[in-house]
Amino acid sequence: MDVDPAVLEPIADRAWPARERSALGGWRLNAAEGWSMRTNACWPLGEPDREIETAIDAAEAWFQARGLPPRFKLTDGATMPEDLPQRLSRRGYADGKKTLVMIGPALGRSDPEVTLSAAPDPSFEAVFKASAGGNVDDARERLETLARIPSPARFARLVVGGQPAALGACAVEGEWAGVFGMRTTSEHRRKGLARRVLGALLAEAALLGARRAYLQVEASNGPAIALYERDGFAAGYAYRYWVR
């Protein structure tokens, strides 16, 4: 699907804001606790404000000063030094998991059983933590990031049998809606709940002015990709994290 990473990546960066942020010209530096890769990586989205090797040195020093391993998020089609992968490789970096950015229409359907709010409430946080696989630090960092999503943001919670069962969130900027934090409790998976949450979020995003939506999904996650494809999403581009 036709989408320019030079347009969408800065929007996606603002939609999922790290606790601490800096820049080296067109390179964005994000740091938090070290769990979510997007909020703990250097995003080269343009030319740096200094010589490339010096910029890499500065990025590495910035992360090391915060007790974090240097990590670079290289996006297909983004404006960056063409030989940056080769330069990182010579320093011992290698590319890791591939993530797809999927693009679709901001079209959905409201659902009377999906509760929408402008901020995550305690029940939203409880479901998020319960679906984190026991990693409370990872869940806490992501919840803190969700709480920093700039307005307008919406948080969706689907209740089944009186108990929250699935949730998700979206950030809206201009015509774009970003979908984040999709979670379903283990006992309610494969029941179509995530699709209902997504539909409610997209319907709300459309009311807020969005026409297109994006989300990130690991390229190896076939079931999630199939879910999103059924709702009109298609792969727009991909990115990979380079780590030592």
Summarize the structure.
The chain is α+β, with helices and mostly antiparallel strands and 244 residues long. 31% of the residues lie in helices and 32% in strands.
Question: Explain this structure to me?
Answer:
By secondary structure, this protein is of the alpha+beta class. It is built from seven helices and eleven strands. The chain folds into two domains: 96 residues; 104 residues, Aminopeptidase (3-Layer(aba) Sandwich). The longest helix has 15 residues.
Keyword list:
single chain, 244 residues, alpha+beta, Aminopeptidase, 2 domains, 3-stranded antiparallel β-sheet, 7 helices, 11 strands, 31% helix, 32% strand, globular
Topology overview:
Layout: H1 5-15, E1 20-24, E2 27-31, E3 42-44, H2 52-64, E4 71-75, H3 84-90, E5 94-105, E6 114-117, H4 122-130, H5 136-147, E7 153-160, E8 163-173, E9 176-184, H6 193-207, E10 212-218, H7 222-230, E11 234-243
Parallel strand pairs: 9-10
Antiparallel strand pairs: 1-2, 2-3, 4-11, 5-10, 5-11, 6-7, 7-8, 8-9
